[in-house]
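A.,

Following up on our hallway conversation. Structure tokens first:
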């Protein structure tokens, strides 16, 4: 060691066989130079001890190498996923001391986040030496370096969407086309519109949304579909659940079928601008409405929520109203940027006899109450005769994963009697 210092070496390598020699590691680390340490055969505890020994000297210039101390190493023994785990556990640069044949192990290690590759090197395998059988020749080494550089390029960065090279391939996507001549005012149907190649029209996921809408103009066969073709309706009804049908059908009858558009997909500002609705109604809609849409509509989005706000905002409001013993009911409120925090137009408290109700039956009752509340108040909201008032109190909020926590605590079904479930939940909590 002292001899190496006299030579002025710039960094030190601790071989796998020496990584349990903590006095040696401490002395090496005390020189304050970078250290590369192989971890072949070492347990997790032994690696921790070696790392702590280096850090205790004040030296933080350490790289760990995953290593299989077999010569040559075979693929079954390499366990390269350990590189990922080591990066998480030690928060250090991790590499691979690679004794396998070829460059596959090295390139995979880089793909997994490795920073350093160690390989044995020889000018020729015909020259006898102890490690000739698993060493790389100059040509093989050059190929490994190139493979690694190509791997780094291929890894790139996390990205989504169409790359520059993929732009020309967009034509092979499917989209919605007008496949028969359509006259102004005519309904779009499954006969005059179809999902076909090329991908110049709107995405296929909107097919169900555009069926039944009316054309704003004459459209020729073979024209890629666009939302501009749809006659603007007064109301855009957002939902992903059939239990909203009563409200939707009443609205169609009340306003006229051609004035209400049923919509299930994620709503974008571009679509809203083209459809230009007077109002947007959200009821059991699984997508979050984006802030730019909220801003554009200027308070003309209302949400129908099956809880007595501010209690039980977010997911599974009916379930949590019983579990947490909060007010139960239905609320029609202005949709604002906070989740279920908008000013309330109208709400109705509902009381239940938990001995006689299941979670499913109580929810069906809330749906009926919501239908009644909406029918009674829609015209008042639309005509500006009903002013929304700010929600009072902190209230409660729940996410989907909160329900999963309860499912893990106590097996749950929507057909469970509410009183029985609450009793069982209480008994479980007391155990």
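Then the amino acids I'd put at each of the 431 positions:
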């Amino acid at each position: 060691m002292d001899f190496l210092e006299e030579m002025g070496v710039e960094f030190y390598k601790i071989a796998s066989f020496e990584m349990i020699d903590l006095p040696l590691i401490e002395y090496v680390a005390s020189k304050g130079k970078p250290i590369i340490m192989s971890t072949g055969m070492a347990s997790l505890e032994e690696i921790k001890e070696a790392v702590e020994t280096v850090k205790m000297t004040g030296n933080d210039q350490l790289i760990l190498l995953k290593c299989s101390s077999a010569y040559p190493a075979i693929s079954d023994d390499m366990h390269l996923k350990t590189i990922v785990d080591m990066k998480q556990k030690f928060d250090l640069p991790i590499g691979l001391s690679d004794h396998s044949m070829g460059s596959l192990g090295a390139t995979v290690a880089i793909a997994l986040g490795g920073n350093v590759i160690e390989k044995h090197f020889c000018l020729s395998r015909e020259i006898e030496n102890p490690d000739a059988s698993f060493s790389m020749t100059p040509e093989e080494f050059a190929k490994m370096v190139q493979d690694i550089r190509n791997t780094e390029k291929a890894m790139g960065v996390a990205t989504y969407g169409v790359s520059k090279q993929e732009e020309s391939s967009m034509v092979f996507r499917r989209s919605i086309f007008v496949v028969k001549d359509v006259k102004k005012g005519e309904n779009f149907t499954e006969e005059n519109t179809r999902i076909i190649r090329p991908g110049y029209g709107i995405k296929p996921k909107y097919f169900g949304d555009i069926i039944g809408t009316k054309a704003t103009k004459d459209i020729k066969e073979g024209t890629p579909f666009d939302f501009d073709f749809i006659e603007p309706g007064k109301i855009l009804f957002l939902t992903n659940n059939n239990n909203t049908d009563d409200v939707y059908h009443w609205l169609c009858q009340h306003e006229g079928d051609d004035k209400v558009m049923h919509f299930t997909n994620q709503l974008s500002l571009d679509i809203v601008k083209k459809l230009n609705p007077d109002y947007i109604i959200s009821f059991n809609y699984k997508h979050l409405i984006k802030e730019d849409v909220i801003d554009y509509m200027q308070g003309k989005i209302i949400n129908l929520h099956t809880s007595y706000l501010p209690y039980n905002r977010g997911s599974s409001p009916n379930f949590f109203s019983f579990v947490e013993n909060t007010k139960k009911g239905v609320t029609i409120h202005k949709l604002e940027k906070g989740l279920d925090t908008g000013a309330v137009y109208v709400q109705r408290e509902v009381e239940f006899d938990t001995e006689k109700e299941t979670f499913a039956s109580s929810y069906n009752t809330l749906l009926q109450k919501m239908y009644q509340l909406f029918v009674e108040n829609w015209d008042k909201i639309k005509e500006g005769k009903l002013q929304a008032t700010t929600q009072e109190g902190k209230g409660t909020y729940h996410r989907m994963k909160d329900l999963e926590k309860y499912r893990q605590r106590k097996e749950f079904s929507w057909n469970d009697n509410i009183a029985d479930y609450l009793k069982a939940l209480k008994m479980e909590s007391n155990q």
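The two ends are 62 Å apart (CA to CA). Curious whether your intuition agrees with the design.

B.
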